[in-house]
Specification:
CATH superfamily of the largest domain: Hexapeptide repeat proteins
Helix content: 10-25%
Number of strands: 23
CATH class of the largest domain: Mainly Beta
Largest sheet: 7 strands, parallel
Distance between the termini: 62 Å
Number of helices: 4
Number of domains: 2
Strand content: 25-35%
C-alpha cells in the first residue's frame, strides 16, 4: 500500500489561535507542521510547541516554496484586516497556502481560494462559493447558492440563508443568523445573536442590543398560536 505523504506546513503566528490551529491539524493528521513564523521583532524564543520559530523575512530560506504550505493563524482582529494584510504580503511573494478543513465538515459548495479554515461540523451547501482567506468556526451553516467574499470571518453556530451575498472582510458573530437572499456589503459587522432580515450597505454594523430587548408575556392559550407557520388548509 502506498504511504500517504503529508505536505509540510508552517503556521504564521504564535498566539492562542496558532495553538488552536496546531492542535487541530495534528488531531486530524492534515499536514506535517514543521515550524512557526512571526515578524523578527516578535521572536523572543527559538522554539514554540517544540518546533522552530522562523522570522517571516527568512521563510524562503527555510521551506521549499514549490511544495510546502503556509497557514496564517489569525482570526478577526481589526475586522480581518490584520489577517488580510499578512496574507497579501506573502501571496505576492509567491507562497502557497493551505486550506484547513475538518473531516467532520461537509463542503458541497466550492472553495475558490486558499488559507480558509473550515472548522468542525461546518456545512457549506450546494453551489455556494467561498472566497479566499475565510474562517468559519464550528457549526457554521452556509446556505445553497451563497457567495462569500474573501477575508471574512464567521463565528461558531452562525447561519447564512440560501442565496445570500456577503462582501469581503465582513465579520459575522457567534450564533448570528442572516436570512435568505440578503446582501451584506464589504467590511460589515453582524453582531453575535443578531437576526438580520434586511440588506446591509458597505461598512455597516448591525448588532442586537440586549438592553432594549422586547419581552412580552402571553396567556398560555395565546402563546401557542404565535408560532404558526401558516393556517392549515384542506
Amino acid at each position: 500500500m502506498k504511504k500517504n505523504i503529508k505536505q509540510n506546513l508552517v503556521i504564521i503566528g504564535t498566539s492562542t489561535t496558532a495553538i488552536h490551529v496546531y492542535n487541530f491539524v495534528n488531531e486530524y493528521g492534515l499536514y506535517n507542521i514543521t515550524g512557526f513564523a512571526v515578524d523578527r521583532e516578535y521572536i523572543k524564543e527559538r522554539t514554540f510547541l517544540g518546533l522552530p520559530i522562523f522570522a517571516i523575512d527568512e521563510i524562503e530560506e527555510k521551506i521549499d516554496k514549490n511544495k510546502d504550505l503556509l497557514f496564517i493563524a489569525m482570526l478577526w482582529n481589526r475586522l480581518n484586516a490584520d489577517r488580510r494584510k499578512v496574507y497579501e504580503q506573502l501571496k505576492i511573494k509567491g507562497f502557497s497556502f493551505a486550506n484547513i478543513i475538518s473531516p467532520t465538515a461537509k463542503v458541497r459548495g466550492k472553495l475558490e481560494g486558499d488559507n480558509c479554515w473550515i472548522h468542525d461540523y461546518v456545512i457549506i451547501q450546494n453551489d455556494a462559493i467561498i472566497g479566499t482567506n475565510v474562517a468559519m468556526m464550528a457549526f457554521t451553516l452556509i446556505g445553497a447558492h451563497c457567495e462569500i467574499g474573501s477575508h471574512c470571518f464567521f463565528g461558531a453556530k452562525s447561519t447564512v440563508g440560501g442565496g445570500c451575498k456577503i462582501g469581503e472582510q465582513t465579520f459575522v458573530g457567534i450564533n448570528a443568523t442572516i436570512f435568505d437572499d440578503r446582501i451584506v456589503g464589504r467590511k460589515c459587522i453582524v453582531g453575535a445573536c443578531t437576526a438580520l432580515k434586511r440588506d446591509l450597505p458597505d461598512f455597516s454594523s448591525c448588532k442586537t442590543d440586549i438592553n432594549s430587548m422586547l419581552v412580552k408575556t402571553y396567556d398560555e392559550n395565546i402563546v401557542e398560536g404565535k408560532l404558526l407557520f401558516s393556517e392549515n388548509k384542506h
